[in-house]
Amino acid sequence: MNIEQKRSFVLSQPFNVAIHKKTFTNYLEVIIDESGKVHYAVPSHQEKLIKLCCEKLSITRDELNDLCPKEYYCDFISWLTMTSGAVSVWDSFYIGKANKLQLMALKKLKRNQLYRGSIG
Question: What are the domain boundaries of the chain?
């Protein structure tokens, strides 16, 4: 298995700090759900958040799009984080309002030198 195949395989698995650190350098794109569980943002942050919102609200993607207020048309990820209750995380910042469990997950990512941004 070449490096790209290995990376693709890891991204398709549940998030694991040790495996992530062995596979990636200076890369973190994850979603932390309301329970504090970390998920890879695959295929993208927006798509993962859309999936979480649709599951949470038991609605279709079209129904979700219809719910989005006009003021968030150009800031869709912020609205998706509010609607899903999740936070969207990159290696140096996150979007969303983190609850206690999500803050604990961010702190764990920071302790493991995967997240370099501020917390809180």
Answer: 3-111
- pTM for the full predicted model: 0.94
**Rounded alpha-carbon distances, angstroms, from residue 83 to 24, 35, 51, 64, 72:** 30, 15, 11, 10, 12
Instruction: Identify which of 53, 12, 15, 9 has the alpha carbon closest to the alpha carbon of residue 36.
Output: 15
User: Which residue's entry shows tokens 């609205």?
Assistant: 79
- Taking only the tens place, the pLDDT of each residue in 22-61 is 999 999 999 999 999 999 999 999 999 999 999 999 999 9
Q: What is the 3-state secondary structure (H, E, C) of 18-59?
A: HHHHHHCCCCCEEEECCCCCEEECCCCHHHHHHHHHHHHHCC
Consecutive H or E run containing 4: helix 3-11
DSSP, res 15: P
